[in-house]
Every structure is written in structure tokens, then in C-alpha cells.
Amino acid sequence: MPPVSPFLRTAAAHAWRLLVVGVAVYAVFSLLGRFHEIGVALFLGLVVTALLSPPTRGLARVLPRSAAVAISLVGSIVLLLGVLALVGEAVAGESATLVREFREGLSSIEGWLEGPPFRLHPGALSGLQSKAGAYLSEHRSTLLDTAVSGAGHVVQVLTVLALAVFSSVFFLHGGTRQWAWFCGQLPERARGRVGVAGRAAWRTFTGYTHGIVLVAATNAVLVGLALYFLGVPLALPLALLEFFAAFVPLVGSPVALAVAAVVALAARGPLIAGVVIALIVVIGQIEGHLLHPLVMSWAVRLHPLVVAVSVIAGAIAAGVVGAVVAVPLVSVVWSVRCALRAHADGADDAPDPPRREAGEGPREGPSPRPDG
């Protein structure tokens, strides 16, 4: 039997190790897939904690910690419900006008498409509308079943939100103690590295959360003012859509502004729709070249290619939730890697710690925390 070449032996050794790592990663993601609601709830709880930690700390200087947490949470919930109520009132107030403008806009679009350069047949759009009505009537039972199943999804969403609020209460009230307790359960040799990783992860996560909220709010204000002065209906709901869409980097804002362009085309005509499309380009440039470099300077700044690949991979793996979570997850992992590498280099260069005298108590290190 001929001897095995060293190259083949090395390749085989790396191959089975890669297989083991692949199986472990697949098992982890399969486990997370079965309990993804819990993962999403904890992620939202951390987001709420990152956003409400500064006001909670400020209130805790003059009030008990429990009262500060309660005021921060209740105040944020009231603010959110007030914004949603304002949006609902705006939609209800403009619904009749919007229906009329949509009908007139669709008629003008039909006339525009029937002329040059498209020269669409006059009966094409009306035939399309009749086909759509026939499809809805034929598949009414399927649509009703989908609506019923959608009610079950609504219950799941409400359950996830309730768990997120519940977990954020404990994160805000005693996150530091919880993290210190967790680190205390680890072997003493690993506590330093875990503490460094936890501080880096929380610093990056809070920086990213504050930054993306500020970017989203700025985009929403710009879009709302532009649509309002252009006379596009539903400017406030479209601005709110832009706010939530901005949490998906590179993709969310163009999609939300495309919806605004469709509304402007139907309600105000091609000229205003063209201005809204130009607005898409301008806001994209402001976001990419001004807001992100300035606002995200305290968080890990990833290459745009890494951001794009992360968003696409997250969307493929877990849909919209994966697209939202992908970039902060990659940022946290990269910051932890950099922090651990710097910690290892510093530990290698650090002098030996002084010896303790007999009877001297153990020295307490810094308390690692994601601050609650």
C-alpha cells in the first residue's frame, strides 16, 4: 500500500474538522430556528434597554430605580401609542380624498400609458382589473384561510412583544448584577476574556442602536417634510414607514421611498413622482455619505460590501427579521473579536501581578457589564 502524501493527510485533517464545525453550526441554527420567537423577544428587549438606559439612569439619580424604570417604559409606550394614533387619524382623515385622487390618478396613468411611447391597448388595464376581481372571487376561501392564519401570527407577535417588554424591565433594573452573576459562574480563567467580550459587545450594540435610530429619525423627518411640501397625501404614514424601513440598511429606505413614489404617481401625477424619485437618490446619498459616517462613528464601521452581504444572508436565513438583525450581529461579533485580540496582546505584554501576602483577601476585578 503506497504511503499517503503529507498534503492529502493535512487536507483530510482539516476536512473532518470543518465537517464537525459545520455540523455544530447547523445544530445551533436549527435550535435557534425552533425557538426564534424567544431570540427575537430577547433581541427586542436588548434594543429597548439600549434606548432607555440613558433616561433611566438620569431618572435614577432623583428617583428609586424601580420608579425610574417604570416611568421610562410607560412613557415610551405612551409615546409610541400616541404616534400610532396620530398616524391612524391622518389615514382616516385623508382616506376619502385619497380614494378620489387614486381613481383620478389611475385614469391619468392609463391615458399616459396608452399614448407614446408605450401605446398600450386601451382594454389591457381594464382586462387586468377584471382578471384581478375574478381571481379574488375564485380564491375567496383561500384568502379567508390566510387571514385566519394571519390572526394566529398576530397573537405570536403580541406574545413576542410582551416577552420583550418583560425582559427589558429586568435588563434595565438589574442588568449589571445579572451580568456580574453570570460571569461569576464561569471558571476564573475565563472571566477576564468574557468580561472584555461583554463590554465590547454591549458598547457596539448600544452605539449601533442609538445610531440607527438617529439615522432613521432623520430620514423620516426629511421624507415627511418633502412629501408634505410636495402635496403628496399620507405624508405622515409614509414618513413613519421610512423610519421603520431604515432599520434595514441599504435596502429599507429605497423600498419605502418607492412606495411613496407610487402614491405620488397615482395621486399627483408623473411630475411629482419624478421629484420623489429624485428625492430617493438625494436621501440615499445623504444617508450613505453623511449620516452613517458621522452617526455610526462610535460603533464598528463595516465595509458596505460586508453590510450588503450580511443583509442578504440574514434575509435568506430569517426573512425581514434576519435582515434587521444581521448587521448589528456582525458588528458585535467583529468588535468582540477585536477586543479579545487586543486583550490577548495586552495580557502577553503585561507584567506579572504582585503576589498577595498571607491572609490577604482576593482582589476584585472590574465588573463586566452590559449596562442596564
Question: Could you describe the 3D structure shown?
Answer:
By secondary structure, the chain is mainly α. It is about 85% helix and about 0% strand. The protein has helices spanning about 5-35, 35-60, 65-115, 120-140, 140-185, 190-230, 235-245, 250-270, 270-295, 305-350. The chain starts with 5 loop residues before the first helix and ends in a 23-residue tail after the last helix. It folds into two domains: about 15-125 and about 155-185, no CATH class; about 185-350, no CATH class. Helix 6 (about 190-230) packs antiparallel against helix 9. Mean pLDDT is about 75; it is low at about 350-370. The chain has ten helices and no strands.
The parts where pLDDT drops under 50 for at least 5 residues are: 352-372
Number of helices: 10
Average pLDDT reading: 76
Distance between the termini: 65 Å
Which outline best applies?
A: globular
What fraction, in percent, of the residue positions are helical?
over 70%
User: How many domains is the backbone divided into?
Assistant: 2
Radius of gyration: 27 Å
Query: What is the H/E string?
Result: HHHHHHHHHH
What profile does the largest beta sheet have?
none
Percent of sequence in beta strands = under 5%
Number of strands: 0
Secondary structure category: mainly alpha
Protein topology:
Blueprint: H1 6-34, H2 36-60, H3 65-114, H4 122-138, H5 140-184, H6 188-230, H7 235-245, H8 252-268, H9 270-295, H10 304-349
Helix pairs in contact: 2-3, 2-5, 3-5, 3-8, 6-7, 6-9, 6-10, 7-8, 8-9
Overview in brief:
This protein is mainly α and 372 residues long. It is built from ten helices and no strands.
